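PROTOCOL LOG
Step 1. Enter all chains and additional molecules of the complex.
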Amino acid sequence: MVPTSYYVILSAILFGLGVFAFIFKRNIITIFMSIELMLNAVNLAFVAFSQALGKLDGQVFVLFVIVVAAAEAAVGLGIIILIARNRQTLNVERVDLLKL
Amino acid sequence: MTAPLVVFFLLAALAVIGAVSLILQKHPIHSALSLIVVMIALAGLYLLLGAEFVAAVQIIVYGGAIMVLFVFVIMLLNAGVEEHTSISKMAGAPGLLLVVALAGLVAATIVRSSDSIETTLQTGEMSSTPGISNMIFKDFVYPFELTSFLILVAVLGATVLAQREKS
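Step 2. Run joint prediction.
Step 3. Record the structure below.
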């Protein structure tokens, strides 16, 4: 039996890597993928606690998170296509219309 | 070391390597493939936790649908190698430290609060799929129906956003 804390630590590591990628990557698609990585890390914690407590609420929540992630991916990629079409770049440094 | 522990460490190493590779790769398509590795490893971990249904959904929806969408958009936009613009090395080192601190803080907090849970650890023999279907269609039936509206709005929004403007 694997202790729950191992899963939680792995979840925190993956979340940290997701935050790192979100901050340091310059490509807007990769930044979007790092958001998905963070969502996955949280899902792992959900399922680990669901199993530790012997309740299924956590797994149901994971299903909702996956649904929201799918909707988010559809809308987000639509926005990315729009940005790429209007500004001819995927680099977030060059999408600085609001910057003073 | 028992067999589940060995499997856990193999899958955990695979997930972490995939996540690090996502950061190190320069081309978005390589990052997307790394993310698929992370998702498959996580599906294996869900199986290890006794959550078969979530594992199947993880592979079908995340590894399949969402990542295909990503790869499709990368190819549609012909995304090239990430160009390197002014990320200062001075800001990079403290940023890395802060990310490590964040992960440590999150892990420490949750592990400390989960100490009370450890003692009541279940053996994970329950078959979860019938229980999940019961919860979705009884306890969570309204949120479940609301997600269909969410999907509908997302589909409409994506269509409106991505359509070519009529000139």
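Step 4. Note key features.
The CA atoms of residues 22 and 145 of chain B lie 35 Å apart.
Chain B has seven helices and no strands.
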